[in-house]
Amino acid sequence: MEQLQFEYPAGAPASQRVLVGVVGSGDLEVMVEPGTPGTTLVHVTTSVDGYGKVWDAQLSRVFSAEPRAAMRIRIHDFGATPGVVGMRLAQAFEALGGDGKEQA
Questions:
Q1: What are the Cα distances from residue 72, in Å, to 2, 67, 101?
Q2: Structural domain span for residue 27
Q3: Which of 39, 65, 77, 91 is an S-S bond match for 46, by CB 3.0 to 4.6 Å?
Q4: Domains in the chain: how many in total?
């Protein structure tokens, strides 16, 4: 198991906690909690060692596109593909309301 951590600029804290997905069968679980204003921290526990650059590229696409709310995100991976990662993050942002975007 590999532990990865990433940090991105953000706005005000997310409004609530969210849990989407399950660990198993090539899927992953995403848990979101309100974060510290100005920062989103993403902690990834993955069963696939050596994919730090892939995770960095995938998450950078998600968090550099638009300002997001400040969150603490824990991702528990079970060998999920980048498409599943993107889908689960989109589900989590949708559950937050406003697609996890920074609220004005």
A1: 18, 15, 14
A2: 2-100
A3: 77
A4: 1
